[in-house]
Amino acid sequence: MDDLPPRIGIDRPGSFSRSVFQERHPVLIANLLDDFPYPPRIRARLEALLAESRDGAVPTAVPPGPNAPFWEAQIAECAGRPWRSLPFLWAESYFYRRILHATEYFAPDSPWYGVDLFAPQKHAQLDGPEILSDLDAYTALAEREPDERRQALLHAALWGNQADLGFRTISAIAGQADVVVDDSAAVWDLIDGPGEGPVIVVADNAGREITADLALIDAILETATVELHLKPHPYFVSDATGQDVLATLAALAANPNKPVQALAQRLREAIRDERLILRTHGFYVLPSTYRHLPPDLADDFRAATLVILKGDLNYRRLVGDREWDATAPFGEVVDYFPGDVAALRTAKSDLAVGIPPARLTELETGSPDWRISGTHAMIQVLH
Hints:
Elements (H helix, E strand, L loop, with lengths): L15 H20 L4 H16 L12 H11 L9 H15 L16 H8 L2 H12 L5 H13 L11 H7 L1 E5 L1 H8 L7 E4 L5 H13 L5 E5 L11 H12 L4 H15 L3 E5 L14 H9 L2 E5 H9 L10 H4 L7 E6 L10 H10 L9 E7 L1
Parallel strand pairs: 1-7, 2-3, 2-5, 3-4, 5-6
Antiparallel strand pairs: 6-7
Helix pairs in contact: 1-2, 2-4, 5-11, 7-10, 11-12
C-alpha cells in the first residue's frame, strides 16, 4: 500500500496522543522521582525534560547512547521544531531516550549507569497478589483438553497486561472483555504447519504480560523452536528486557505450585538447549516502523515460521501509527511485512485497522472509548 495516511501527531487538543504528553508523562516523572533518591542534577534534568516536552522545542544536542548515527540524523531533521508538531511515535521514543540520558543510564562514570529506572514498577507486578492469582489459574489449566488449554494460553498472552485477566479460560475472558477480531485458528495453523524456521515472539511488557508470554511459549515449544525478542535496555516504562525475563523465571521457580515450578524448569532447559533463544536488537528501541526494518532483522522475520508481535506499541509500528480508516483491511495495510505475522494487541491508542464496518459502527455507538480503554483487543494474522 503506497498511499499512506498522515502520521498521528500530538498537536490535536483532546486526542489520546496529546493526553500522553500532557497528562501521563507528568505522572511518569513523578513516579521516577518517588522511586529513586535521585540527586538534584538528575531531578532537575527530568523536570526540565517534562517542561520542554509539553511546551518547548527539540534541542540540537544528540542524547548519548547506542544507535548514535540514527539519532544524529533524526535530530538534524527535528531540532528547533516544537514538540507538539512531532509525530506521536517519534516523540514518545525520543522522550524515553531523553529520560535515559537524564538519569545517566548510559554514563559509565555515573553510579546510576545501567540502573533500570523502571525496575521498581516492573518488579511490583512480580511481587503482587494478582500474579499469584494468574499462576493459580495457570495451574488449573492442566485439567483442560489440550486444544482448549492452548487457546486459553493464547488469550492469556493477549490480555496479559490487563489488571484483572491473565490466565483465564476462554469463557471467562469473553465475559469481561471483547476480542474484536480473533484469528486464533490461523495462529495455531501456522505454528503447527510445515515451516522449519522458529516462531519469533516480539515481547511487549514485563511483569504479568511476559509471564503469560512465557506460558504461551512453553506451549509453542511442544512443536517448534522459539526466539523471544526483547528490548536491549529500558524503554516505555514496562517493556521487557533480558533481565526481566530472568527475574520472571526466578519468580516462577519460587512459586509454591508444582506446575508453575515445572514451567520454569522447562523454560530454563529450553534456553540451555537453545530451543528457546533470547535475542534483542537496537531496532526495538527506535521510533522506526516495521516498514523500515534493518536488513538483518528482515531476514530473520522472513525465515521464521511465524512472527508474533505483542502489544499496542508493536501494533502501532506494524501498521505505521497513521490515521487509518479502521475498516482498512489488515492484510493490505501490512502486506509489506517480509513473512507471516500475527499481531496480539490490546487496544490502548486511537489506532485500529481491519475492523468489519458493521462491527465498527457497533463499537463506536456502544463503546466510544473502545480504542483506548484496554477492554477491547484483536488477534490479526497476515499469511
